[in-house]
Design a protein that fits this description.
The protein has 10 helices and 8 strands. It is α/β, with parallel strands linked by helices. An 8-stranded mixed β-sheet has the order 1-2-4-3-5-6-7-8, sandwiched between helices. The protein is globular and about 50 Å long.
């Protein structure tokens, strides 16, 4: 697996899938980027450069753990661009990785080509997702056999009564079958410190980021799964309004991992956008 050095000397690793023009891919979590795979076959259209964020996958644990903070991870993405020798790069980000990509777009607009945001987290731009929004979305799955237990857990979490986070996992998948259960277990973050410090104080400046994105000249795709409890389509639509040139796509029947729920549809949409 190829590596490069971050500005603070931490050795970071990345995976390469496919051929052609590169797209730098930023995972969520923060967790091992292996869960992205080749994004449902997107590697048949573009060369995917998939970054293992510091302290995850095969990337080294930094000496300064405060560098796990989201805004500081932007520097790692810029270092990867320089390492690849790209004057400009297309970027695809998933889930929490979108917070990194949004801040990258704000800080390095001239280095950005096209930007694809998949199942985006909205913390970097300050879009709050209410408990009622999540409940309304969850109720779309009321005919599923797992719904009663999962919805009860969601209610407990939403109301601050605790609750089992794993119990609501079915809401993140278009199909909650054996394959989804296996993939859900594999995608759990293993570096708890990286997760805890990702959103530490100072990680986000929503007002500044929103102002910068309003001047972003790059074409942006925001793709939401119809059933994605993490990134409800309603909230993703609000995110899309922050960009001058944004396309919003809601993938039918999909959850938080649309390339797994319907690889053909996801790949067709994303490949057409990236070109």
């Amino acid at each position: 697996m190829p590596t490069f050095s971050a500005p603070d000397g931490t050795e970071l690793a990345y995976r390469v899938h496919g051929d052609g023009d590169p797209v730098v891919c930023i995972p969520g979590g923060p967790t091992d980027a292996g869960y992205l795979g080749d994004l449902g076959g997107l590697s048949a259209h573009r060369r995917l450069i998939v970054l293992d964020l510091r302290g995850t996958g095969r990337s080294a644990i930094p000496e300064d753990v405060s560098s796990y903070r989201c805004d500081r991870l932007v520097d790692d993405v810029e270092a990867l661009r320089a390492h690849l020798g790209l004057a400009r790069m297309d970027v695809l980000a998933h889930s929490a990785g979108v917070n990194i990509a949004a801040q990258y777009a704000a800080r390095h607009p001239k280095r950005l080509g096209r930007l694809a945001l998949i199942g985006p987290s909205t913390r970097a731009v300050g879009i709050a997702i209410t408990g009622e929004t999540r409940r309304e979305l969850a109720r779309l799955r009321k005919d599923e056999p797992w719904f009663p237990a999962a919805f009860a857990a969601l209610e407990a979490i939403t109301e601050g009564r605790g609750g089992d986070g794993d119990a609501i996992a079915p809401f993140f998948w278009g199909r909650w079958d054996a394959a989804a259960r296996k993939r859900h277990a594999a995608a759990r973050p293993s570096n708890k410190e990286a997760v805890a410090l990702f959103g530490a104080e100072g990680a986000f400046d929503p007002e500044a980021t929103r102002a910068a994105l309003a001047a972003c000249g790059s074409p942006v795709l925001l793709l939401a799964g119809e059933y994605d409890l993490n990134s409800p389509p309603e909230s993703v639509a609000e995110f899309a309004e922050l960009f001058p040139d944004a396309t919003l796509v809601v993938q039918p029947g999909a959850g938080h991992y649309p390339w797994l729920d319907d690889a053909d549809r996801f790949t067709a949409t994303t490949a057409a956008f990236l070109g």
